[in-house]
Structures are given as C-alpha cells and as structure tokens.
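User: For my dataset I need records formatted as: sequence, then structure tokens, nothing else. Please produce one.
Assistant:
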Amino acid sequence: MSRDTGTDDPRVRVRPGRGSRPRTKVRPDWSGSPLGRVVSIDRGRYGVVSEDDVRLQAVRARELGRGSVVMGDRVRLTGDLTGRPDTLARIVRVEERSTVLRRSLEDAPGERGEKVIVANAEVMVIVVALADPPPRTGMVDRCLVAAYEAGLEPVLCLTKADLADPASFTALYRDFDLRIVSTSWHDGVGTGVEELRGILRDRFSVMVGHSGVGKSTLINELVPGAGRSTGVVNAVTGRGRHTSTSAEAFELPEGGWVVDTPGVRSFGLGHVQVSDVLAVFPDVAEAATWCLPLCTHLEEESSCALDAWAAGRGPFDALDPQESERRASRVASVRRLLRGLAVAEGAARAAR
C-alpha cells in the first residue's frame, strides 16, 4: 500500500521509508589484508608505507572511530594500494600495539584525558639544549617517566655542546640506565650525530623536547633532504618557536624511522603510577616495601623507609660510606622523578 503524500503532484519525490531489516553484525575478516605502518597524519589523511615499501595515502574506515589510528600504528589496508597520485587506500583494522607513548592533558588549558604521541616505537630521544635555551631537568624527568612507563629505551641527546660543558648536566643522570649523546655544529658540520645515527639504525624511534632545542636540525642532519624548518630562540622569553606543526616519521638512509614531534611545553603524567617510577630502580622499589601505605616517598615524608635504606639503619643492614653514598644518589634520582609526577598530579587536581 503506497503512502499518502498529501499531493498528487508527480514532481514531488518521496523518500522511501526505512526498512525493518536490521543491519547485519557480521563484519569482514581483515586479518589477511596487506599490512602497512602509519608515518604521517594530516587532516584525516594518513600516510602509510606498505609491506612492499609503497607510499600510500589512506583514509580511516568509519567503523574504526575518530582518534583510533595514531602515528606508528601497524594497520590493515584495502582499496587502491598502488600508491599512484589521486588514489586512496582504506585503513580497516589497527593491529595490537607493542608500545604506546602517551602524555596526559590535564595540565593543558581546556583539555582533558590523554593523547597518544606514537605507537610501536622502540626508542625515545629526549632532545635537550645545553644553552640557548638553558636545559630544564623537569622536562627531562617527565619524559623519562613516560618512556619507562611505555617500555621505550630512553636516549638523552644534548645539543649545542659547543656552547656549554655537558658534564654537570649528565652527572644528574648517572644513576639511570641511560645512553647520552652530545652533539654540536661547527661551520655547518655536526659532531656526535653519527653516534646517534648508530643507536637509531633499524629501529622506530621518536624525538621529543621543548621548542628551539634543535630537533628539526637533528632530523635534517640524520635524513638528508628532510627539509624540516628550523627557528631561533626568543631573546626575551628564552623559549623556542614551534617550527614543526605536525608529527611526521622520516626514513633513515641506513634503515629505521624517526618521528619528529611538534615542540611540547609540558608532558602530563596523569596516567603514570608511583609504582611505574619505582620500577625503574628495582633495589629502591624493594626498599619501598617497608614504607607505610600511601607513602609518597618524597623528602617531606618523615616515615619514608628510603632514607633509612640509604643510611643503612633501622630494618636495613649497616653500610660502608661508599655504598651509602651510592644509595643516597639513587634515592635522590627516584625522588626527582616522583617530584615531577607529584607536580603533574597537582595540575590534574587543579584542572578538575
């Protein structure tokens, strides 16, 4: 029986009624579809490198949902996989991630939750300038916590070593299982870059750091022809300007990929637990089991067992002065990371 449209005018087009047949819940099995890795993201378009080393432009399947595909993801593809201009593939499935580097947004005005920076990375290169702008331990500490929590190998890359001696800064991190590379440039020629190149060879890595510390310069040195724009530091604020506006992965000539991220002014740690920080130092974590519940392990905790462990008193065995000094140094390193975590938690509470 036809619907009464209220008019006999044949020019009136009536949209057919919605059918009663439910949409099927059976979805295609994409597990055998070709694999690729996401190496760039720009306004809904995903740059993907396929298993056959073909560069593709792809869109996300609607059922995956917004924000479900991030830099570094291994994805299943369908559609046009030739990589020809004006063709699009389609991302239909995201494979399980081996690592996820994220930062919380509680300390960013007007934002909440977490932001995934990169997936399936193996190395985090924390880029710090020794001068112009001066180094800030707080940022490094937060990045270290995020790297350890994500299961990434952290590498500390010190730039502008020709302007300041790196010894005093590197001494702060002697207790960490951390590789440190110093780089500098003289007459356009970089030193120390080859050491970094060897660390990154055949690995998927990500660079993080404040604006103006030299990430783009490092990328241009590691990847000839990358063409990342470089900037200068503001003489008044001592901060660099954002020269990289979007994350992009660059293929290293000798194998491997490095992701250049836009400069960040903060690195939220709302997703990190105290136990994640203590796990960096297993001996300190074992001593912390003697602490009372909810102990912050910071200096102001008068009942914290870490001080007794470092001094060799209380329930712990007596120590010689050299071992006591070593333990005190490790406790100080842990507390520096925990202090950064406490600052992030305070910012998160203030934002609620």
